Amino acid sequence: MGTVVDAAIKDANGSLPSHKKVTVVFVLGGPGSGKGTQCANIVEHFGYTHLSAGDLLRAEIKSGSENGTMIQNMIKEGKIVPSEVTIRLLQRAIQESGNDKFLIDGFPRNEENRAAFESVTGIVPEFVLFFDCSEEEMERRLLSRNQGREDDNIDTIRKRFKVFLESSLPVIDYYDSKGKVRKIDATKPIEEVFETVKALFTPLSDKVI
Ligand code: ADP
Ligand code: C5P
Ligand code: MG
Q1: Residue 84 C-alpha to ligand 1 middle, in angstroms?
Q2: What is the pLDDT of residues 17-62, one digit of tens each?
Q3: Euclidean distance between CA atoms 158 and 195, whole angstroms
Q4: How do the domains of the chain map onto residue ranges?
Q5: What are the CA-CA distances from residue 203 to residues 35, 47, 60 (Å)?
Q6: CA distances from 37 to 27, 33, 114, 120, 149 (A)
Q7: Which one of 31, 49, 134, 201 has the largest count of C-beta atoms within 10 Å of its C-beta?
Q8: Tell me, what's the pLDDT at 15?
C-alpha cells in the first residue's frame, strides 16, 4: 500500500541515474525528541534502513575526510552543514544499503536541504514523522544522553533549539501544507510513543517482522 516513488537516484559522482523504487519516511523533531530511539524500533519491526544525517556527518568527521573540520565546526555551533555534503552522504548510504525502504532522520533540516534533496534525487517522502516535544524535556534528555557528543552541552543545545525553531519548523510546516505530517506526542515514555508510531507503519507493511 502507499505510493512508491520511482526515483532517479544519481550516484555521488553524478553518473547516469539508476532507477530504483524507494520508500522514504523523513523523521523530524527537535534535538533530543527521540528520533534515533524510535527509528531503532521501526527498523526492528518493519525492516527499514535507518539513515541519520547527524550520524553520517559524524562518521565523515571520523573518516578524516577533507570536509571533516568544516563539519565538526558547524556541529559544535549547531549550524546546518551545506546540503551538497549531507545529500552526497545520504545518496551513498542509500545505494550501499541494498534496501528499498528508508527512515531519513534529522533531514531535511532547512529549506535548502529540502529543495536540494528533492531536485537531486526526485524522492518525495511517503510521509513525515514529527516528534513533538517541549524544549524543557528535550534539554533534560540531551544533558543526560551521555554519548560523548560535543554538541550536548547547554551552550550548543540552546543554539540547536534556535536553529530548529527558525529553520527546521518551516520545513515541517511545508510538509504539513501537503498533508504529509504525522505529528506524535514525543514527551510520553518510549514504549507509548512507539505504540503510536507502530500504528502508522503497520498499514504500509507487507510483513511485520
Ligand atoms: P534525537 O535522535 O531526536 O536527538 P535520541 O533518540 O537520541 O533523540 O534521544 C535523546 C535521549 O533521550 C536519549 O538518551 C534517549 O535514550 C532518551 N529518550 C528518547 N526517547 C525518550 C522518551 N520518550 N522518554 C524519555 N527519554 C527518551
Ligand atoms: O540530528 P543530530 O542531532 O544528530 O544532528 C547533529 C548536528 O548535525 C546538527 O546540530 C547539525 O549541526 C548537523 N546536521 C546538519 N544537517 C542535517 C542534520 C544534522 O548540519 N541535515
Ligand atoms: Mg539522533
Answers
A1: 28
A2: 455 689 999 999 999 999 999 999 999 999 999 999 999 999 999 9
A3: 30
A4: 2-194
A5: 21, 14, 35
A6: 11, 9, 23, 29, 16
A7: 31
A8: 39
**Which ligand has the minimum distance to the alpha carbon of residue 133?**
1
Ligand nearest to the CA of 189: 1
Nearest CA to ligand 1 atom 12: 141
Backbone angles phi, psi at 185, to 5 degrees: -75, 105
Q: How far apart are CA 207 and CA 121, in angstroms?
A: 27
- Cα of 164 from ligand 3 centre, angstroms: 14
Atom 12, ligand 2: which residue's CA is nearest? 75
Measure 12 CA to ligand 3 centroid, in angstroms.
24
Cis peptide before 125 (omega within 30 of 0): no
Amino acid at 193: V
**Residue among 12, 5, 6 at smallest CA distance from 95:** 12
Annotated binding residue at 10?
no
Q: What is the mean pLDDT of the chain?
A: 91
Confidence (pTM): 0.92
Judge if the beta carbon of residue 145 lies within 6 A of ligand 1: yes
CATH number of 2-194: 3.40.50.300
